[in-house]
Automatic annotation (TrEMBL):
The modification 4-aspartylphosphate is found at D55. The keyword Coiled coil applies. This is Response regulator. SUPFAM superfamilies: CheY-like. It comes from Streptomyces longisporus.
Amino acid sequence: MVQKAKILLVDDRPENLLALEAILSALDQTLVRASSGEEALKALLTDDFAVILLDVQMPGMDGFETAAHIKRRERTRDIPIIFLTAINHGPHHTFRGYAAGAVDYISKPFDPWVLRAKVSVFVELYMKNCQLREQAALLRLQLEGGGGKTAAGEAKEPASLLAELSARLAAVEEQAEALSKQLDDESADAAAVATAAHLERKLTGLRRALDALEPGAGSASSVSSQN
């Protein structure tokens, strides 16, 4: 069973949170409410989120200050932040949002379809990263000699485990490639494209590490280096 991604919604107005939930419910992910910057930071202490929708204008700790705290924490600095604001003070105001670490900046009232599409991209990227971490964990077990087991509880042969890892990685590679093509076709945000490219680089590194474990890989590389 695939675990749902969590999306953090931060706004001091309950009616705005309700509207966001109505728009994003079609994504079928876990939506978490926070009515202040402090409440958002508390939620980020214990849970992992695919993306944060953060209102700029909030009493006390506003969106800019909240984003600054999020980006200072090692655990949360890489979580994409989409700023939502009811006002637009011009380029300087927008620049401040990007300087605070936002990947996007949307003025209200926004198009529900556009917002849902933007959020869905980051949810999908988050899912692919989770799959990549799982494959990396399996590969690490193999490298450490942990091996694997069959359904009957018997230890798998190294070649069998490598084949399984390769097949799982190939599935993630195929999905990542499809996502990258989708982003290109839709002229997506530069931040989303950059995140997808980073994911592909990580997949390439994992594939090289896996290929290096294949029988004969060492001798083949040795012959190649001599030529």
